[in-house]
Amino acid sequence: MGEIFACRVDARFLRDHIKMKKAIVFGASGFVGSYLLRELLSSADYEQVTAVARRDLNISHPKFKTWIGDYNSLLALKEKICVDEIFIALGSTTKKTPDKREYHRIDHDYPVLAAKAAKEGGAQSVFLVSAIGANALSKVFYIRTKGETERDIIALNFEHTYIFRPSMIMGDRAENRPLEKTLIRVWSILNFFLVGKADQYRGMTARDIAKAMKNSAADLSQKLKIYCWREMNDLLQR
């Protein structure tokens, strides 16, 4: 009886004294974002998780809300945003978005605008999926765009900015990508040879990237942190 009472008291204390967080996710219908959404919804650290998506995600969960929107309608949603954390897993491919201006809007303008809106809505922390080698000064368009996005989100001066730079994102996607499937098979073998400083190029599953992002939010001790394969892998051990 005493143990049961103690458990109830402990539960009441946790509920009353530990603040549960509210998070918003951009890119929740994507490969990493869909896993990230599941991780956040299953975490006891969050009381509410909101996804901004172009369509209904058909998810039923007591903590979950969906707002239908995109880059063009985000300003209309801005007044509704009141969160502690923002997770950004937005992105496209050159096959889906061959026009460079449109690609830049999806991979740079939208994430930066989303981060600005969340910060104005009270967010203290931002978690961004980027890419290995991201460099705003690169001559390679993809790498330069990722670098520009990192640079401009860092400039927003969140209390905590955590950036995740995966190399090959592995796992089974819903869409059919024969070339990518071949690359993933090759990368699975290459992983064994990518050691030392080269381990940043190791592939990681979308599920593990998402789990690492969620785990990183449990320790907001740094202003700016860049996570490559090794650092993300360390987070998986928590």
Which short descriptors sum up this protein?
alpha/beta, 9 strands, Rossmann fold, 17% strand, two-stranded parallel ribbon, globular, 238 residues, 7-stranded parallel beta sheet, single chain, disordered N terminus
Distance between the termini: 33 Å
What class do helices, strands and sheet pairing give?
Answer: alpha/beta
Please tally the β strands and state the result: 9
CATH third-level topology: Rossmann fold
Q: Provide the residue-averaged pLDDT.
A: 89
CATH architecture: 3-Layer(aba) Sandwich
- What is the assigned CATH homologous superfamily? NAD(P)-binding Rossmann-like Domain
Overall geometry comes to: globular
Structure description:
With 238 residues, the protein is of the alpha/beta class. It has a single domain (20-236), classed as NAD(P)-binding Rossmann-like Domain (Rossmann fold). It contains 8 helices and 9 strands. It has helices at residues 2-17, 31-42, 74-77, 100-120, 141-154, 178-190, 206-216, 229-236; strands at 21-26, 46-53, 64-68, 85-88, 125-129, 160-164, 169-170, 204-205, 224-227. The strands form 2 sheets. The chain has a 7-stranded parallel beta sheet, with helices on both faces. A two-stranded parallel sheet has the order 7-8. Helix 2 crosses helix 7 (206-216), helix 4 (100-120) packs parallel to helix 5 (141-154) and helix 7 packs across helix 8 (229-236). The chain is globular.
